[in-house]
Amino acid sequence: MSTRTRTDGNGPSAPLRRGRRILVAGLGNLLLMDDGVGVHAVRELRRHAGCGVTVAEVGTAVLDALHLIEKADRLLAIDAMRAGGPPGTIYSFGVEDVEQRPTEASLHELNLLSALTLARRRPREITILGVEPGRIDYGLDLTPVVLEALPRLVDAAGRIVAKWTGGTFGRDG
């Protein structure tokens, strides 16, 4: 199996060997305004997915995506997350941060943690991008502040995937 040139040694963020898989999962409920921001983000990202990158609208059905999670070497989950910042704030953290303090996680991250405990094989690296929601209530549209944050969220996701692949990904990739 050939390897792309590594830019940062053999650490967990080194680019992948060919044949490895990345899953970008959009979590959330599209019927609850800002709660669906993860799904909105992956709809943008899907247009830029390349070989070895699966972009999936998981929504609230995290267990239904278990087969995708088990095949992934790296997982990027995108979701709304209340962490106390102003609406539209973007957070990036590892799944181990949620495992240590699950009371601060969104419901979808808790479902993600449950799915990971059921998985026969767990991705070796898991990153979660969270967005502070402005409003979670019945409705199909994102609030203006979260809609304004969407391009920054898509760019942040693209940078993470590009780092993992050693290439480009996202709005400009």
Q: What keyword list fits this structure?
A:
five-stranded mixed β-sheet, Rossmann fold, 5 strands, disordered N terminus, alpha/beta, 173 residues
Explain this structure.
This protein is of the alpha/beta class and 173 residues long. It has a single domain, classed as HybD-like (Rossmann fold), CATH 3.40.50.1450. It has five helices and five strands. Strands 2-1-3-5-4 form a five-stranded mixed sheet. α1 (37-45) crosses α5. Mean pLDDT is 82; it is low at 1-16.
Short summary of the structure?
The chain is 32% helix and 18% strand. The chain is an alpha/beta fold.
Order of helices and strands: EHEHEEHHEH
How many separate domains? 1
Task: Please describe the biggest sheet, giving its number of strands, its sense, and whether it closes into a barrel.
Answer: 5 strands, mixed
Tell me the β content. 15-25%
Strand order of the largest sheet: 2-1-3-5-4
Name of the CATH class: Alpha Beta
Rg is 15 Å
Query: What structural class do helix, strand and pairing data support?
Result: alpha/beta
N-C termini distance: 25 Å
Helix fraction by DSSP (H/I, runs of at least 4): 25-40%
- Low-confidence runs: 1-16
CATH fold label? Rossmann fold
Q: If classified by CATH, what would the architecture be? A: 3-Layer(aba) Sandwich
Query: What is the assembly state of the chains in this entry?
Result: single chain
Report the CATH superfamily. HybD-like
Overall outline: globular
Number of helical segments? 5
Q: Say how many strands there are.
A: 5
Average pLDDT reading: 82
